[in-house]
Amino acid sequence: PNEGTMCFLDDQDHRIAHSYVLSNCGLLSEYERIFKIEMTQRHPRVRVEDVWAKYGDTFQDWFRDYVLHTNITDDIINALAFGPKRHVRHWDHYYVNGYNFHTYEYGKSKSTINYGVCVKATDGKEYYGILQDVIELCYVGDNRAYMTTLFKCQWFDSINGVNVHQAYKLVDVNHTRKYPQYDPFVLVSQVTQVCFTPYPMKDSRRKDWWAVLKMKSRPTIDAAEEEPPFQVDGNENPPSLTDIDIDDDADCISNQVHDVGEADDEEEGSESDIGDEDEVERSF
């Protein structure tokens, strides 16, 4: 199995990745409710429905302090409250959801394009981007370590950089127009694969535009799985790019559970076991 390599997250990515995991965790709905009540008490002029937009970036700090001062003993809650380790495992290719993904750096020189990604928001809007990295976060509790895997992506501008042809539902993206906020992480369970194809160079009007081709996932054989430590519910309080459409039974923290004493050791391979090397033929 491909066990990946180890690296360190910088402060910004560590905080943003942790925030994304918290905002997509159904176990924390009660803590989110308490957080909103406290924020409206501190800021009486702020409506409850506006709390997450205004103060959502402070939730992880509030959550850690709340768990610390209320002496909560639940192992998973404590692990989530104190955040993931900065030492993370990462891959440059990863098989998940029936797709063989490559990061851009790994796949840019290959004859295939497997680094295009798409996620769908709860309102049906789709976001397109390029896969930059695959990381596995490790949350360490008193008894166990809990793992979850994220894709780090460079998103295209969803307003000025995406064009949908309504008659045929064809999609183009402008690869020179990037999403203006730094919000790169999504759970691997939320992602489907797309291929980007440039228009012929003789069409100067479309030189910055790529056509989007949606790929079909490979069929997979269902295998018996452990009950995951906890699962994702649809999140009503997403940050700017995290209003992603999530199945009720999608995993936020995987069912790969290790003893704490093994948390720093090489874990067994995850879903990164790669099948056939290439899927999508490059058309340019």
UniProtKB/TrEMBL annotation:
Task: Indicate the segments forming the DUF4216 domain, all copies.
Answer: 135-212
Q: What is this protein called?
A: DUF4216 domain-containing protein
User: What InterPro entries does this protein map onto?
Assistant: DUF4216
Q: Lineage of the native species?
A: Eukaryota, Viridiplantae, Streptophyta, Embryophyta, Tracheophyta
Query: Where are stretches of biased composition, namely Acidic residues?
Result: 262-284
**Source organism:** Opuntia streptacantha
Q: Name a Pfam family for this protein.
A: DUF4216
Region: Disordered; residue ranges are 222-284
